[in-house]
Amino acid sequence: MGRKPCCDKEGVNRGTWSVIEDGILSNFIKLHGEGKWRDIPKRAGLNRCGKSCRLRWLNYLRPDIKRGNFSEAEEDLIIRLHNLLGNRWSLIAGRLPGRTDNEIKNFWNTNLSKRAHQDHPQNNKPCHPFTTKSPTTLLTSAHHQPSPVIRAKPFRCTKKIIFTESNGGINSVTRETQNNTTASTSDTARVDDLMGNDCFSSYGVIEDFDFDGLLIPQQVPEINIDDEEANELKWCDEDEANNLTHQNWLVGQLFESAEHNDDVDISFLNLQSDSFMDLDPSCLDGKV
DNA sequence: AATACATTCAACCGCGCGGAG
DNA sequence: ACTCCGCGCGGTTGAATGTAT
């Protein structure tokens, strides 16, 4: 049985939206709100597909859309986030208020991807799949190939505590992520947790992982963490990080899975090259 | 001025996911 | 456990526009 089409394509307007159609859709959504996209064309009196209405509203008609050229700060953030997340445009757009995933995707494809290719011609591949190499191999190869892209993969952990810097003080945010926890977080929220509003400027400590000291002392020996902190992963701002390690390797990311709140993703951040590298899950088998 | 070619970006398309029943 | 449905996502297309010849 085939998939039911989103609408009857016969006799439905397609292509560029007219000013009148924009006005009808805007007014309808302002009055009745978003959602039920399949019903909106009929209710609003538009001869359009519901999907087309949704796209037009989200990408163009929403009042909070920011139009115009991307600033340097926005470009920089897009590049960093693309490094981290790959082609997950909706997630990237979630970090850029007023920008849509479609706009960012177009901007990347027409501008930034070319620049990235010029800067690192060997790294123009799309987001690579999660590797099965050993962590040691990963660390070694990452030094030679400084800009791999991570694909987040979940790891199970038992608990984490994150401290975030805010308004000059330290606010603590505690979350217990044990098996069968039902709390959920969006992808955007988890990126917020990890990156802060200023992208890598936050300071935090993540602790109580059942990693048995696997990661820090053995796989990232350059990091100055003593035995008592063997189960503690740190992430800091760049100045702090440069003071911490001669080779500028630092555990940089921990992702809470949106689907499984008891899982996290781990990657390493190379602060010299701003590149990320993920960790082979097999090394954690039986450890977590 | 006319034409060809390149670039941009709004819009479309198909697929996958999650919730409801 | 299964199907159906609505929604959102990422890849792709093609019309509009810009630039070169």
From TrEMBL:
What is the official name of this protein in its record? Uncharacterized protein
Spell out the subcellular localization from the entry.
Answer: Nucleus
Q: Which residue ranges traverse the bilayer?
A: none
Nucleus as a keyword of this entry, yes or no, is yes
The keyword Endoplasmic reticulum is annotated on this UniProt entry: no
Extract the signal peptide range: none
Q: What are the GO cellular component annotations?
A: nucleus
Ranges for the HTH myb-type domain? 9-61, 62-116
Q: Which residues form the Myb-like domain?
A: 9-61, 62-112
